[in-house]
Design a protein that fits this description.
By secondary structure, this protein is α/β, with parallel strands linked by helices. It has helices at 2-19, 36-44, 64-70, 82-92, 111-118, 136-147, 162-167, 179-189, 210-220, 224-230, 234-238, 244-252, 258-276, 284-291, and strands spanning 23-29, 51-57, 74-77, 97-100, 105-107, 124-131, 159-161, 194-203. It has a single domain, classed as Alpha-Beta Complex (Spore Coat Polysaccharide Biosynthesis Protein SpsA, Chain A), CATH 3.90.550.
């Protein structure tokens, strides 16, 4: 009788897992105390309850880990960049579904619920990310992201089945930037079905000044050559300052932010070219860009 009871309990658990699969939300962090609390609060408010939260932390020296534990997140320590941190988080995840978000993301309360429903008819999902910010440059970046919301060259799946993630090889750990788009393209090349779902994420960590934007681009650009070696299609994404999709979007949705859009596109173009013509440490030109007092004023 005890054996039968045990088998019945196991069947109930399997049925429950099928109906309400465990979702592992993986958040890479490094000194993220300014934003991670808002992120974790939004996770706690999800209408879908069967969630585990994994904070994969790069040995932060601020209160990131303490804040994570306050919200009952599972904190694991892993050095290196976010691709490594996300892969490690996935390796210790117990859920059959993985959801990768950054520490400066805030989720709508029904985001996970919508993803769990949609993943039954797909292998991976592209969610709906909206950038928010009050500064001119943050609003400009938000405007650009809106114009490119349906551009295939910048789409990246964040929510996916765990077995699909590992079969695709996870995130490429040599990349600092574009590891999510790289994975997305590999999923498509492998024949996996990716759908877009109206599950809202707000990105609250966009650069507030042009200087912050430049520094961020210089940092991410250090592995751009590795990215290009993996996929030459990226050339058309990074080396075209005025993409056709942007021009079409501006014509359909004109805005006073178009001036800022032109500036960040040109800056992005210049920094990218400089990164492609240097190796190893920053070139003298990039160092000069980083130190230009002009950017402090914008």
């Amino acid at each position: 009788m005890r054996v039968q009871h045990k088998e019945t309990q196991e069947n109930v658990e399997k049925t429950e897992e099928f109906k309400h699969p465990l979702v592992s939300i993986i958040i890479p962090t490094y000194n993220s105390s300014k934003t991670v609390e808002k992120c974790l609060k939004s996770v706690k408010k999800q209408t879908y309850e069967n969630i585990e939260t994994i904070v994969s932390d790069n040995f932060s020296t601020d209160k990131t880990a303490d804040i994570a534990r306050k919200y009952k997140a599972r904190v694991v320590l892993k050095g290196s960049e976010r691709a490594v941190a996300k892969n490690y988080g996935a390796s210790v995840a117990r859920g059959s579904l993985l959801y990768f978000i950054d520490s400066d993301f805030v989720l709508a309360c029904d985001t996970v619920q919508k993803c769990v429903r949609a993943i039954t008819k797909a292998d991976a999902l592209v969610t709906s990310k909206t950038s928010v910010g009050k500064s001119f440059w943050a609003r400009t970046i938000s405007y650009k992201n809106q114009l490119l919301a349906d551009d295939p060259s910048v789409l990246a799946a964040r929510f996916m089945k765990k077995d699909v993630f590992f079969k695709a090889g996870g995130f490429h750990e040599t990349l600092v930037y574009g590891e999510d788009v790289d994975l997305h393209r590999r999923l498509l090349d492998a024949g996996y079905l990716i759908r877009k779902v109206n599950a809202i994420e707000w990105h609250i960590g966009e650069p507030k000044t042009l200087k912050e934007f430049v520094l961020k681009k210089c940092y991410y650009g250090k592995t751009l050559k590795r990215y290009l070696k993996r996929d030459r299609r990226v050339i058309y994404t990074h080396l075209n300052p005025f993409k056709l999709e942007l021009l079409k979007g501006v014509l359909k949705n004109p805005s006073l932010l178009i001036f800022g859009l032109g500036v960040i596109q040109i800056v992005d173009y210049i920094v990218t070219l400089l990164e492609l013509t240097t190796t190893g440490k920053d070139s003298q030109e990039i160092a000069q860009i980083k130190n230009m007092s002009f950017f402090w004023l914008l």
